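Summary of Year 1 activities. Much of the first year was spent building the evaluation harness for sequence design. The harness presents a backbone, in tokenized form, and records the residue chosen at every position. We chose the following record to illustrate the format because it has been used consistently in internal testing since the harness was completed.
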């Protein structure tokens, strides 16, 4: 996101990276020391993260990492399905030969990470693939919406990445997306992306039911 302060960037990354867990309090004095920042900078960062849906604040209670319940996570993913389907279609219309080659390379690397049972590498490549599609699509508003929604889903997606066999299912779906974009087929690209995120929605529901 443009114009982010250093404090905001570092605090956002700490939350998304799991250094702070859902419902954990974010004490201003501690954050000032950790981030070498003023209270003004920390409060501004917390306010921005509240608007992104990553933090909750309340009078006399301070701030804490927001926990996104399963049903809300499903709703967020439903919005992502519509927006990222559009992004995939637009990417298929605009992709260059060099970008198509890069997407194919990412898909091949994803296949190797599944073969090596390397969940961390697969997750990083997953993020890279979706980000590459948004870059190719060149739609600023869609990019901003997806990036904000992705942040709110990151913990659910991390949990999904640890479900046995999930990466193999996801791999086939990502390969279908890449194949459609490389083939410059917008309708197939949108359909493949929507199929993929529908699968994510179903997996989030199943994981939530198991936890209950």
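For this record, the design step produced the sequence shown next.
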């Amino acid at each position: 996101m443009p114009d982010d302060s250093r404090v905001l960037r570092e605090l956002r990354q700490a939350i998304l990276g799991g250094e702070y867990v859902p419902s954990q309090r974010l004490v201003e004095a501690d954050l000032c020391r950790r981030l070498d920042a003023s209270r003004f900078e920390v409060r501004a960062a917390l306010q921005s993260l509240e608007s992104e849906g990553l933090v909750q604040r309340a009078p006399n209670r301070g701030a804490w990492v927001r926990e996104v319940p399963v049903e809300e996570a499903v709703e967020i993913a439903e919005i992502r399905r519509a927006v990222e389907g559009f992004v995939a279609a637009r990417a298929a219309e605009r992709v260059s030969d060099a970008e198509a080659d890069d997407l194919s390379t990412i898909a091949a690397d994803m296949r190797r990470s599944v073969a090596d049972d390397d969940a961390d590498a697969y997750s990083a490549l997953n993020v890279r693939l979706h980000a590459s599609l948004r870059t190719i699509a060149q739609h600023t508003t869609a990019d901003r919406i997806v990036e904000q929604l992705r942040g709110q889903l990151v913990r659910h997606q991390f949990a999904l990445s640890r479900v046995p066999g999930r990466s193999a299912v996801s791999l086939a779906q990502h390969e279908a997306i890449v194949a459609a974009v490389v083939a410059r087929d917008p309708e197939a690209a949108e359909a493949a992306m929507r199929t993929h995120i529908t699968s994510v929605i179903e997996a989030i529901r199943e994981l939530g039911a198991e936890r209950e």
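Residues 110 and 124 are 9 Å apart (CA to CA). Quantitative recovery figures across the full test set are reported in Table 2.
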